[in-house]
Amino acid sequence: MPRGLFITLEGLDGSGKTTQISRLASWLKKRGHNPAVTRQPGGTPTGDRIRALALDSRSTGLAPLAEMALMFADRAQAIAEIIEPALAGDRIVLCDRFTDSTEAYQGGGRELGSAVVLELHRLLCAGLTPDLTLLLLPSLEASLARARRRNERTAAHSGQDEGRFEQEKGAFYGRVWHKYREIAAREPDRVVVIEGDLTIDDVHEQIVEAVSERLLTAGHQG
Questions:
Q1: With b meaning 16 or more CB within 10 Å and e meaning fewer, what string describes 146-173?
Q2: From the CB of residue 99, how many other CB atoms can be counted at a distance below 10 Å?
Q3: What is the domain partition of the chain in residue ranges?
Q4: Whole-angstrom Cα distance, residue 26 to residue 59?
Q5: What is the spatial distance between Cα 219 and Cα 61, in angstroms, rounded to a whole number?
Q6: What string of DSSP letters covers 52-101?
Q7: Domain 5-218 has CATH 3.30.450.20
Q8: pLDDT 10s digit of each residue in the chain, 222 long?
Q9: Buried/exposed 193-209: b ≥16 CB within 10 Å, e otherwise
Q10: Which of 79, 71, 38 is nearest to 53 (CA)?
């Protein structure tokens, strides 16, 4: 049976993933595709409730293992409800974050290590691996500044508080950044790194180049 293509976008908060996934979806639609677009945490009714709990800065004292368990609960639901049905229907799936985020933030940032993350992924996600991961790595300072401004705007307009992770110190984000680097070095065939403080258009061009190549390899007309 034909099977779709699973593409994820990764990076620190404020790296530009939301903007780029929207632009990529539009680019794919213009070429006749009907991509399923989702995010983690969130994207399903259950996932949105998990997101509200996990990202709210009032969720103080959340243990690292509990935080990781929430991320995998959200992911398992998203796979069952959105990702697997779309892939089975031969659609392209665009997902803002996947298990690489858990490995970077909980494995690296929270210092839980990669082994426990990868084992939970094997057990709870049946080892589902993206066909292509686009890792956006602008400078740490630029990412954090953008993420904090975005969260302030969101809180002002909607009252939603998603700033819990932005309260972390620089050392936490340094560990996240280096763990992302480690993942990219470990899986160079899957992970395409787009690095530096580039313009939105420059990042989009590099994304389109990587996606076009993967569509051709996978036999999807681009």
A1: bbeebbeeeeeeeeeebbbbbeeeeebb
A2: 27
A3: 5-218
A4: 35
A5: 48
A6: HHHH-TT-TT--HHHHHHHHHHHHHHHIIIIIHHHHHTT-EEEEE--HHH
A7: no
A8: 578 999 999 999 888 999 999 999 999 999 999 999 999 999 999 999 999 988 887 778 889 999 999 999 999 999 999 999 999 999 999 999 999 999 999 999 999 999 999 999 999 999 899 999 999 998 877 777 776 666 555 555 666 665 566 667 778 988 999 999 999 999 999 999 999 889 999 999 999 999 999 998 877 655
A9: bbeeeeeeeebbebbee
A10: 71
Output helix, strand, coil percentages for the chain, rounded to the nearest 5.
60, 10, 30
Q: Which residues touch 142 (CB under 8 Å, ≥6 apart)?
A: 14, 197
What six digits make up the tokens of 90?
């031969």
Please provide the size of the chain in residues: 222
Convert 38-70 to b/e letters by CB count within 10 Å (16 or more is b): bbbbbbbebbeebbebbbeeeeeeeeeeebbeb
Query: What does the block give as tokens for 182?
Result: 């480690």
